[in-house]
Amino acid sequence: MGKIKQLPLHEAQKIAAGEVVERPANIVKELVENAIDAQATQITIYLQDAGKALIRVVDNGIGMDIDDAQCCFLKHATSKIQHFNELETINSFGFRGEALASIAAISTISLVTKEKESNEGIKIIISENSIKENSTIASSTGTDITITDLFHNVPARKKFLKKEQTEWRHIQQLFHAFCLNYPTIHFKLFSSNNCLYNYPAIKNSLSRGAQLWDQKTAQHLIAIENQQSTVKINGFISNHHNFRYDRSAIFFFVNNRWIKNYGLNTALLKGYLNVIPQGRYPTACIQISIDPHEIDINIHPRKEEILFLHPRRIEQLLQQTVKQALEDNLSKQIKQKVEFASANTSTIEKQPTGFNPFNFDQFFSQNNMLPSNQTSVQKITTPASTIEKSIHLHAQEEIALSQQNPSQLTTTEKNYQLIGSYKKTYLLLEKEEGLVFVDQHAAQERILYELFSKRFNEVATINLIFPQIISLSKQDLTTIKPHLTIFQQNGIMVELFGADQLVIKATPVHLKNTSLDSLIQDVISWINQQQLEDKEFFKAINEKLQAQMACKAAVKAGDELTQAQKEELLFTLENTPNRFSCPHGRPTSWLLPIDEIEKKFRRRK
Ligand code: ADP
Ligand code: MG
Question: pLDDT at residue 470 above 70?
Fold first, then answer.
């Protein structure tokens, strides 16, 4: 009698399951991929004990009919391919029809699913390789899968599960990869019934990055793009100001799949050579599109690694793209500083020819314009490096300029005479063409709006001695939470404070005496009215915030202005783009033509 015996199916499945499911994160990955394949736009993950006790993934995708729901747990049951040769060009995540079968072999699965057209959902519970429940149930469209009793029948595997923190780290990393790769999907992650992450749909990965990371990192992200024959690279990376102590913020995606690849990692870091210190790592989200025939995604049971046909070509392209993007970004930043300096101060000479923006010493000696009053103002980020220092100087300079007598600013000739004001609201100007009324609030709103939008990311801020605490409803807090970075980028240093409050620790200088409660509420109600997946969302919310900031900071109708303040307002308005209307579209000034005045007094026909 031979020694060879065929293993019973359920034993074979347990062994196979070990390849697909090593830890809870692998299950989360398979379930979320299935949800994405099912075209879900909302995916919520619930965990207990970092997935060891419970993993539940709920999606609003296409769901399954009764036949599919019953056979999706069978080995090699897939709706995604029919033949092996489709493998090379597959667009969906799944194709092996293995995940659910493998998971079912080592756990208890409860599935609730409903198709849109169907009136009721289907509930199936599978445990110990048999169907324990098969019934209909009221449910919403989509699929809701719960996994419990993980590895109950594979004690060896259970023993090797790492402590909760390690398993949690794996899941968190995976979750962030999905969030970056699918910014238009609304992702939520709950642990023991607490919502830890909630990222509403947003237009692109860069904006998603801003939702994910701290505001300092978000400010320092730069987009990258390059193409060489069949290989296309795009995404974003952090610039030379920002680095981390670990690789946890580096993500690679190849044809939409999150992968780990040593060669790509090395190439990325080579691109940063001499830009960030050794042993420090950037933030990066790199999407590589490549002809599917040039990769093999089938080399790893969990498809976490891939094989490139020409790895060197791709690595070189990546390294060169990163290096070029960093260089371009640096020279752009310096050029902007130089242009700003020469455009805004009469004291700065034009840069002599031969000026090299990369020569920091030369740059600073030629911009030596630090005004004496520099105690209270700071830039958003601590001025750590030389370039930051230059931004800091400009912030100082902006204040100094606004305190100067406008008559000293001779960029344009004054062609009006201020002759008075009416109702402490309208300034009256005598001009060649007639009498001009200027609405002091609308005028300053426009001026500040242009200033805030021009200086996006570089607003001069002031620390508040008494931080403002703003209480919000849980719902409002959830609405605003993912967008706090936008406030921070505009100089409003707002953070979560306790369970239902925000704290504002610093504001742009112009807003220093203003209560920001209504500004925050305004933006919240604006967001609530928006379609979040709107492509223009980021731009629009930014404009909205800047307009509201300008409105808050501007003098009001009825505010008493000194002669010098009026003069300054008029002079600045004269030199402001779009000066004929405020950001909300109201006119800033109205001309009563001389002809009309003379006709009224019958001096002219
Ligand atoms: P694969 O994804 O490789 O096809 P799986 O075992 O992960 O294999 O899933 C088996 C099948 O079950 C899928 O092909 C799909 O038809 C169905 N399915 C699984 N999860 C979902 C879901 N969340 N929504 C709709 N259908 C699903
Ligand atoms: Mg699958």
Answer: yes
Closest ligand relative to 81 C-alpha: 1
- Determine which of 165-179, 302-316, 382-396 has the lowest per-residue pLDDT on average: 382-396
Q: Is the CB of 90 under 6 A from ligand 1?
A: no
User: By the 8 A CB rule, do 593 and 434 touch?
Assistant: yes
CA-to-CA separations, 372 to 152, 368, 382, 400, in angstroms, rounded: 71, 12, 19, 9
Instruction: Look at residue 111 and give its three-state secondary structure.
Output: strand
Look up the pTM and report it: 0.58
DSSP letter for 443, please. H
Q: Are residues 19 and 151 in the same domain?
A: yes
E-state strands within 83-185: 108-114, 121-127, 130-137, 142-148
Ligand 1 contacts CB of residue 104 (under 6 A): no
State which of 78, 83, 93, 178 you would mutate to test the pocket of ligand 1, scoring each by most atoms of that ligand within 8 A of its C-beta.
78
425 and 485 housed in the same domain: yes
pLDDT > 80? residue 545 = yes
Lowest-confidence region among 4-18, 483-497, 512-526: 4-18
434 and 570 together in one domain: yes
Helix extents (H) in 145-272:
155-160, 164-181, 205-212, 215-219, 262-271
Host domain of residue 246: 205-335
* Domain end position, chosen among 177, 199, 221: 199
CB of 568 closer than 6 A to ligand 1? no
The encoded tokens of residue 68 equal: 């599919």
The response to whether residue 78 sits with its C-beta less than 6 Å from ligand 1 reads yes
Q: Would residue 350 count as lying in a domain?
A: no
Residue 32 Cα to ligand 2 midpoint, Å, equals 8
Same domain for 175 and 35:
yes
* 273 found inside a domain: yes
Name the range with the highest mean pLDDT among 68-82, 139-153, 513-527, 535-549. Answer: 139-153
Residue ending a domain, choose from 335, 353, 375: 335
The label of the residue with tokens 């605003």 reads 480
Asked if residue 278 belongs to a domain, the reply is yes
Residue 72: CB within 6 Å of ligand 1? Answer: yes
Among the atoms of ligand 1, which is closest to the Cα of residue 61? 24
**Are 283 and 264 part of one and the same domain?**
yes
Asked if the structure places residue 345 within a domain, the reply is no
Cβ of residue 64 lying under 6 Å from some atom of ligand 1: yes
pLDDT at 279 over 80: no
Look at residue 9 and tell me whether its pLDDT is greater than 50. yes
Q: What is the pLDDT of residue 407?
A: 36
Lowest mean pLDDT among 311-315, 560-564, 577-581: 577-581
Q: How many CB atoms lie within 10 A of CB 153?
A: 17
The Å distance, Cα 31 to ligand 2 centre, comes to 7
Query: Side-chain half-sphere of 253: how many Cα atoms within 13 Å?
Result: 23
Does the beta carbon of 341 sit less than 6 angstroms from any atom of ligand 1? no
The pick from 26, 33, 55, 72 for probing ligand 1's pocket by mutation, whose C-beta has the most ligand atoms within 8 angstroms, reads 72
Same domain, 171 and 268: no
